[in-house]
Amino acid sequence: MKIGFIGVGNMGGPMCRNIIRNTNHEVVVFDLSPGAVKACTDLGASSAASVADVASRCDVVITSLPIPRIVEEVTLGAGGIADSAKPGTVFIDLSTNSPATAKHVAEGMAAKGIRMLEAPVSGGTARAAAGTIVIMVGGDETVFEQNLPLLKSFSGEVIHMGGIGYGSTAKLINNMLAFCNSAAAAEALMIGKRSGIDLTKLDAVIRNASGMSAGYANLSAKVLAGDFTATFALDLAHKDMRLALQMADELGVPGMIAPQVMSLMRMARGMGLGSSDSAAIMRVYETALNEDVRA
Ligand code: NAD
């Protein structure tokens, strides 16, 4: 099969490279960043001139794009996938969107005879590189089954959640929980710092004790090393939290904890940290208390 991959950044890049390594499919990539494209063509992919070029040449078109507006532009905009792909093409979106965006895009695709799976992913860049991410899929079960081998070629676990919208729903719920855990981790580490405890030993305890979570592990690794280079940008985490809170509002679920974490993210973005890693929420505490938390 010919697989098109649009958006080969922090997550899309390693996922695309795993398809190239682990399957015999021909892979065609497009990204606005030439460096991101090169990291895939170096492994054997070919590059395309535009979204339309990818979409018209491929049997399956995959996207991993930053925000819903860009997903809508690349899919339903002029010269987008819906305009350019052949009827019968399968479109798989790995980006994190709202369920409403996923449904809207799926309708636009269906009108052109394109079948869509929304398939947001979780696990971060390290697991994307290792091919062990989890993929949560919304969409028609037959289309899901047909494309399962492709999804498995770059992941450790693939779960069909139900119809279109349920993949995004699972992803937003998961990320809201992970960000709450990260924010609690930032507070915990600052208490540790002020107490004078050995932070490396505290970290070793937490990683083997009941306070451990993926949110803690991601944040503490970056904070203790003092490296806030984005593998998951704060701007993208903020987008996910905004979509999760919107979903909670729509469902009439009152939030106590998540809105506080959203305020922390807003503060960090206000400090100019949007393109830093999402772990940079720690900088809000560090700046307020004039104290860095490093191993
Ligand atoms: P990223 O910014 O590193 O990558 C996005 C890529 O899309 C970039 O290379 C960019 O040049 C490209 N792009 C943007 N607009 C484009 C366009 N119009 N046409 C073609 N290419 C375009 O972001 P990322 O961290 O890889 O995140 C991608 C998606 O995955 C987001 O929806 C994010 O929320 C989600 N996600 C990220 C992580 C993570 O740890 N980074 C984890 C899970 C899910």
Q: How would you sum up this structure, described in words?
A:
Helix 9 (166-195) crosses helix 13 and helix 12 runs antiparallel to helix 13 (257-270). The protein starts with a strand and ends in a 6-residue tail after the last helix. Strands 3-2-1-4-5-6 form a six-stranded parallel β-sheet, with helices on both faces. Strands 7-8-9 form a three-stranded mixed β-sheet. It folds into two domains: 2-163, 3-Layer(aba) Sandwich (Rossmann fold); 169-289, N-(1-d-carboxylethyl)-l-norvaline Dehydrogenase, domain 2, CATH 1.10.1040.10. The chain has helices at 12-22, 34-41, 51-57, 68-76, 81-84, 99-110, 124-130, 141-152, 166-195, 199-207, 214-225, 234-250, 257-270, 282-289; strands at residues 2-6, 26-30, 46-47, 60-63, 90-93, 115-118, 121-122, 134-138, 157-162. 47% of the residues are buried. It is globular and about 65 Å long. The mean pLDDT is 98. It has 295 residues and is α/β, with parallel strands linked by helices. The chain is built from 14 helices and nine strands. Bound molecules: nicotinamide-adenine-dinucleotide.
Please name the defining characteristics of this protein.
295 residues; alpha/beta; Rossmann fold; N-(1-d-carboxylethyl)-l-norvaline Dehydrogenase, domain 2; 2 domains; six-stranded parallel sheet; three-stranded mixed sheet; 9 strands; 54% helix; binds nicotinamide-adenine-dinucleotide
- Find the structural class using helix and strand composition: alpha/beta
Per CATH, the architecture of the largest domain is: 3-Layer(aba) Sandwich
Q: Bound compounds, please?
A: nicotinamide-adenine-dinucleotide
User: Which regions have little confidence, pLDDT < 50, spanning 5+ residues?
Assistant: none
Proportion of residues in extended strands: 5-15%
- Please tell me how large the radius of gyration is: 20 Å
Annotation field: number of helices: 14
Mean pLDDT: 98
Helix content: 40-55%
Spatial separation of the terminal alpha carbons: 48 Å
